[in-house]
Amino acid sequence: MKLKSMMLAPLFAIAGGMFFSCAFSGPDILLDSEVVEGKKLSKYVEKYWVSSTLEASDDGDMAAYAMWMGWKIANLFDGVISAVTPNVSDSPSCGWSSADKDLPQWVIIDFGVPVVPKKVILYARTDDWGSYGNPGANFPQAFEIYLSNDGQIPDAAETGDPSDTASYWDSSSVSIDSSTLLKPPKSDPGLSYELDNTDLKRYLMLKVTRATGDFVQLSELEVYGEFE
């Protein structure tokens, strides 16, 4: 199926994953939904990696808890914006949680083909849990978004930390270091950031350098843009 040109639509929503020595990576995903201008694509990304993920925590109890609650990297791209907890669903989805608060934490996306990313929307967790200040807890407070076409990124993401290799990435398209608390409300959990980009890029990285709470957590990450 040929994609329409100059369309504005989310560029991915994916599922599945496998663990590498440094990063958590998803398998190849095929586009399997009808492409309609302005509608979300259900699945469109080749691979993804993260610096750490709670589902692969060294603490077995925490890893089990993460899986039970639906804190896993695949849920960062599953199209579920509001938290779906185990008490209301057999398929819980809270989003992605880092394994700890060691910084930076990063997410890297391989779109598989050249695209023109234009906008990123970060969604905060929406569940109310305990006394940890939810909803909106652990949302990034300082972060940067980078783009690249460097073909070395997949190998680097699977074996090391490509977020520290400036030569892999173009200058940041977004750089946020908020002096006031970024905590989107449950009723409107998404914050949108326009990217300073008009070129075709294959890779996107969200690099978080400061967050609140004990982890870095997002309910959903969406990217909008144009296809070649």
Specify the CATH homologous superfamily: Galactose-binding domain-like
Helix and strand sequence: EEEEHEEEHEEEEE
Number of domains: 1
Architecture, according to CATH? Sandwich
Q: How is the quaternary structure best described?
A: single chain
Biggest sheet features: 10 strands, antiparallel
The helical percent reads under 10%
Task: State mean pLDDT (0 to 100 scale).
Answer: 77
Instruction: Identify the overall geometry.
Output: globular
Number of DSSP-assigned strands: 12
Highest-level CATH class: Mainly Beta
User: Strand-residue fraction?
Assistant: 25-35%
Distance between the termini: 14 Å
Supply the helix-strand structural class: mainly beta
According to CATH, the fold-level topology is Jelly Rolls
Give the C-alpha Rg.
16 Å
- How many helix segments? 2
Low-confidence segments:
1-43
Short synopsis of the structure:
This protein is mainly beta and 228 residues long. It has two helices and twelve strands. The longest helix has 10 residues.
Describe the model:
With 228 residues, the chain is mainly β. Helix content is 7%, strand content 31%. It is built from 2 helices and 12 strands. The strands form 2 sheets. Strands 1, 2, 3, 4, 6, 7, 8, 9, 10 and 12 form a 10-stranded antiparallel β-sheet that branches. 44% of the residues are buried.
Features:
mainly beta; 7% helix; 31% strand; two-stranded antiparallel sheet; disordered N terminus; single chain; Jelly Rolls; 10-stranded antiparallel β-sheet; 2 helices; 228 residues
